[in-house]
From TrEMBL:
Database matches in PANTHER family: THIOREDOXIN
InterPro entries: Thioredoxin-like_fold, Thioredoxin-like_sf, THIRX-like_proc
NCBIfam families (alphabetical): redox_disulf_2
Xref: Gene3D superfamilies: Glutaredoxin
Species of the source: Candidatus Berkelbacteria bacterium CG08_land_8_20_14_0_20_39_8
Name the UniProt record assigns to this protein: Thioredoxin family protein
């Protein structure tokens, strides 16, 4: 499983990154969460706004950091 958070470096993007790392830890998954600010990669994936949580290269949450509960649900759905 590949989990990436794409963002511009703003506080909202960093919050999604931190919440996602916490969710992965709480789910006891041995997965690295990567934070990317590469605009070119975002455009290649069709991402036009940030932050974005992508699992296995597929954007699953866009535009806002949801609750940690929601993040865990999305991760479990994509296991």
């Amino acid at each position: 499983m590949k989990i990436e958070v794409f963002g511009s470096g703003c506080s909202t993007c960093k919050k999604l990154f931190e919440l996602t790392k916490k969710a992965v830890t709480e789910l006891n998954l041995n997965v690295d969460v990567i934070y990317l600010t590469n605009i070119q990669k975002m455009l290649e994936l069709g991402i036009l706004s940030s932050p974005v949580l992508a699992i296995n290269g597929k954007p699953v949450i866009t535009g806002f950091p949801p609750s940690i509960k929601k993040i865990k649900e999305v991760i479990k759905e994509n296991l």
